[in-house]
Amino acid sequence: MGLIADILLAAGALGAAFYCFILSKRLKHFNSLEQGVGGAVAVLSSRVDDLTKTLSSAQETAATSATTLLELTDKAEESSRRMELRMASLHDIPELETAPANPGKLPKNGTAKEIQQEPMFMRHSKMKEDQ
User: Fold this and answer.
1) If both were cysteines, with which of 33, 76, 97, 114 could 110 make a disulfide (CB 3.0 to 4.6 Å apart)?
2) Are 60 and 53 in contact, with CB atoms under 8 Å apart?
């Protein structure tokens, strides 16, 4: 009986050794860096590092663009205020009575009063036609 128990114990030990050998082979294949999960983890960690660098670069660029945009907006608002002030100040200027360029002669196209009511660019073109 003792001999049968020793043989069964030795067979069980050999079976466990064989099972451990197979598991070690599978584990080596599973953790290899070129194939399996180990390689996938290595590739993913390098891609995460690249994405982190790209993200930080994009954040810096966005911050720079935002400050530039704020500066340009402030300049535009200041220019707008100055233009509004200039436009408002133009309403305070009294209109001047202008005389024709040739006071001795009246133009052929109309009276002096009619010419004064026309826009400035029309007056110059009519005076050139008269000469």
Assistant:
1) 114
2) no
Q: 94 — phi, psi (to 5°)?
A: -70, 150
pLDDT at 114 over 90: no
Directed axis angle between helix 2-31 and helix 36-90, to 10°?
Answer: 30
- The model's pLDDT over 36-59, given as tens digits with 9 standing for 90+, comes to 777 788 889 999 999 999 999 999
DSSP symbol at 97: P
Contacts of 98 (CB under 8 A, 6+ apart): 116
Structure tokens at 92: 């305070």
Residue 103 confidence class, pLDDT cut points 50, 70, 90: low
Whether residue 112 contacts residue 99, with contact meaning beta carbons closer than 8 Å, is answered with: yes
What is the sign of the dihedral through the CA atoms of 125, 129, 130 and 131?
A: positive
* Pick from 21, 18, 39, 22: nearest CA to 30: 39
